[in-house]
Design goal:
single chain; mainly alpha; two-stranded antiparallel ribbon
């Protein structure tokens, strides 16, 4: 909660934006199950929309693999 100190200056708490790690993992998992999923979601989701940077990077790699015609699976992600 924001507080006002003795000098009358409001101190604002730093808050993290909402994030759902499990939801981001589910998006990536759905793509691993069916790589065509990336076509359906790519107009709504971009790599920079992931809160967890590493998941955004994985999504970006998946998207690149798909666009090159490569398989999008656990082996190609390694």
């Amino acid at each position: 909660m924001d507080q006002i100190n003795e000098t009358g200056i409001q101190r604002v708490e730093r808050r993290e934006p909402p994030a759902n790690k499990e939801a981001e993992q589910c998006v990536l998992g759905c793509i691993l199950i069916d790589s065509d999923t990336i076509v359906a979601i790519s107009e709504y989701i971009t790599p920079n929309q992931f809160f967890y940077r590493e998941y955004g990077k994985i999504y970006e790699i998946m998207y690149d693999l798909y666009n090159r015609g490569s398989a999008v699976d656990a082996v190609t992600l390694l």
